Amino acid sequence: MAAIQVSLPQPGVTAMSAQDVLVVGAGVMGIGIAQVAAQAGHRVFVFDQREGAAEQACKQLAEVLTRLVNKGKITPAEADATLGRLVPAASLQDAASANLAIEAIVEKLEPKRALLRELEALLPVDALLASNTSSISITALAAGLQHPERVVGMHFFNPVPLMALVEVVSGLRTPAEVAQRIERLARAWGKVAVQARSTPGFIVNRIARPYYAEALMLLQEQAARPEVLDALLRAAGFRMGPCELMDLIGHDTNFAVTQSVFEANFFDRRFTPSLVQRELVEGGLLGRKSGRGFYAYPEGAPVVAAPKQPPPDGGKGVTIHGTGAVAQTLLVAARMALNGPEPATSPESDWIGIAIGSRQLRLTDGRPAWQVARDTGVADIAVFDELPGQPGGALAYAQTGSPAWRAEAPSWLQAFGWHPHEVADAPGLVVARTLAMLVNEAADAVHQGVCSPSGADAAMKLGVNYPAGPFEWLERLGPQRIVSVLEALDQCYRGERYRVSPLLQRA
Ligand code: NAI
């Protein structure tokens, strides 16, 4: 395959103004991309098929730059220079000198293909054609061009000037050299670029699916209310819980992405969309933008507090079971809370948690409490969730448990400093299950060569603000624990959703 010679800016090169960029589509994303490119020193042509849209976009950008000057983020001279580099183009011909075109038009294959054909005929032969598509195959976009090797994905995140991530997406015909040049360019624009192979959802939109899907599964089986799910995942470090986040994104948009990933994977049931979300969409409960989703707006999610329990009665007969971060945290907390004799330990135990006489509070291994009770013959059992490295979060009981145990169990976790929310006895509870599924999806993406582990971590932290990357969770929780949770989920639900990635099986 002939590598095209392109002369995009190299890192460290400041005189980039000679390199012209054309942004097609002056919508939310196009304006953001134009701002970033112009601030990095390029002359930027902006074209939109809607009459007046490009001028309007440049005016809007002038206001954004004025606000940045007022906040002291840029100097007036920088704002003037940036504005001076923005050129609203009346036609694509006006931008025929561009060395790089980035399209951010409507998310439909045919209009994008038609545009790329037009650009190929118009721009210099060494110009690169980048697409900001969030879901269309780069291979499909490039098909039919004379030089499909000019096409590459440059997937920015919204709002472009604030979100650091760019997924650099290679189709079947994109040479590595082109992807690397785009990566260097994105870096020169102050972004973190992560390489991805063109597969449905690329990195972020694929790996993030379970964050929504597990919450929707739990809602469907009425395991917990949306505000409880949100509180639990916020306690685990996520900036927003899944329900409030779906309300913010809009259920129509979120459902469309899920559907597109599902269809693009030949209806792999692992990506099956949710009935709960479809009903919200059908009912026009789209989230914030329609005033009602899981929550009513402007009020938003009600605050939920775990009910306060009386302290447990003394510390006699307490044993801390198992090893690892959670067992260690429990031991330290027990010493402080019980303020009496050193708690007994049973590090060789095959479970992690607290025994109080014959009653047990166990860290979830994925099995629901009823199953643990059946397997062990212990009736008074409760299972709690993990907030990576710490106990806490959700708590569920086996139905065999006595009312006295149900009243007492949460007080032990509270005495140790955690405030559990009672949920239905769902496998993997809430946080452990969500993390296990995020790790599993990331593992599959790496297994299939879509991205590297460090690429997956960077993409999820920067693209959707996750508190850690999936491979960092894998490191922290260990493959055994992740696989145990997934296998328990798989056993409960059967079907494809919870199948364990070969990469995790091997680990
Ligand atoms: P938008 O609807 O705000 O803007 C699209 C613009 O493209 C409109 O101004 C429209 O007039 C113009 N347009 C449509 N067809 C055109 C054509 N053939 N030639 C020239 N201009 C044309 O859309 P938005 O949200 O900016 O999305 C643009 C692209 O970016 C889509 O591919 C989308 O999937 C992708 N994207 C969107 C993100 C988001 O959060 N909105 C995030 C990442 C990617």
Can you tell me about this structure?
It is a single chain. A hairpin with a 2-residue loop joins strand 11 (353-356) and strand 12. The chain has 507 residues and is α/β, with parallel strands linked by helices. The chain has three domains: 13-198, Rossmann fold (3-Layer(aba) Sandwich), CATH 3.40.50.720; 211-290, N-(1-d-carboxylethyl)-l-norvaline Dehydrogenase, domain 2, CATH 1.10.1040.50; 318-422, 2-Layer Sandwich (Transcription Regulator spoIIAA), CATH 3.30.750. It starts with 19 loop residues before the first strand and ends with a helix. 51% of the residues are buried. The chain has helices spanning 28-39, 53-70, 76-84, 109-122, 138-142, 176-188, 204-207, 209-220, 226-235, 242-249, 251-264, 275-282, 325-338, 369-376, 403-415, 431-447, 453-463, 470-477, 479-493, 502-506, and strands spanning 20-24, 43-47, 86-88, 100-103, 128-131, 151-156, 165-170, 192-197, 318-321, 344-346, 353-356, 359-363, 381-387, 390-397, 421-422. Helices cover 43% and strands 14% of the residues. The structure holds 1,4-dihydronicotinamide adenine dinucleotide.
